Amino acid sequence: MALKIGNEIYPDHMAKFAQPKDFGSTHHWKTMDMYSTQYLELFQMMTSDLMAGIVREYLGPEAYLFNDQFVIKQPMEDYPFPWHFDNFYTSDPKGEFEGRYQAITTCWFLTPNNIDCGGLRFLALDKTSKKDFEIKDPNIENTETIDAQPGDVGIWTGNTLHSSEGNGSDFQRSIWLQVYSSIPLGKGWRSGYYDKQFLRNGEIAL
Ligand SMILES: [Fe+2]
Predict the structure, then answer these.
(1) How far is the CA of 163 from the centre of ligand 1 (A)?
(2) Cα(162) to centroid(ligand 1), Å
(3) For position 85, what pLDDT does the model report?
């Protein structure tokens, strides 16, 4: 699930984006959706040859952009994120379970991600089981927190259950997420989300 790509995907100038901002969407000002619409260099990284290769491998030759999001946890900040599937936050929350599309989230770790700083944790599921989709309180004994460093990239499907705890460390924890799908999930879903085709016949279509 995790790739180690190193500085090829974590150029030094990413550091400025890993800092909290005084604006943002949702209930946390530190969380920002669609940041790549404001900074061309983020859009260029999200649509780079490197990311095209990852998306092509997981979704095939036809793929669309959907969203990107920064999530930043301050040192000692009680900012847990409950168990969820990323598909919950699309125009078709059950579509991947029911075979209408595939989606992936790619995660650039901008700081260390581990159990101490509220890192991402996962629970493996059988994606064909509707029962799994309805799990609200999974057995946390079966979870694993990713131990990642800046330059690592995590990849999971839209129907992969995951969560994170608050940051109990003295260090900021920052990630940048990009979401891609095999159909234009952003169409009709919260104005501003992408429905752009990213790959066509395996080539970057933008
Ligand atoms: Fe998520």
Answers:
(1) 7
(2) 6
(3) 87
Sign, CA dihedral 52-198-16-116, equals negative
C-alpha 179 – ligand 1 centre gap (Å): 10
Note the helical H segments in 110-149.
130-133
* CA 128 / ligand 1 centre spacing (Å): 19
**Cα 151 to ligand 1 centre (Å):** 19
Among 45, 81, 85, 46, which residue's Cα sits nearest to residue 63?
Answer: 46
Q: How far is CA 134 from CA 119, 137, 155, 163, in A?
A: 23, 9, 22, 15
Distance from the alpha carbon of residue 138 to the mean position of ligand 1, in angstroms = 15
Q: What is the pLDDT along the chain (206 residues), one digit of tens a residue?
A: 445 555 555 656 677 777 766 665 443 445 677 888 888 889 999 999 999 999 999 999 999 999 998 888 888 888 888 888 898 888 888 899 899 999 999 999 888 999 899 899 887 554 444 444 455 555 556 677 888 888 888 899 998 888 898 999 999 888 999 999 999 988 877 777 898 999 999 999 98
Domain ranges (residues) in the chain? 31-195
Q: Using alpha carbons, select from 198, 106, 197 the residue that is nearest to residue 158.
A: 106
**Superfamily of domain 31-195 in the CATH hierarchy:** q2cbj1_9rhob like domain (2.60.120.620)
For residues 165 and 121, give the distance between their C-alpha atoms in angstroms, rounded to a whole number. Answer: 9
Ligand 1 centroid – CA 200 distance (Å)? 26
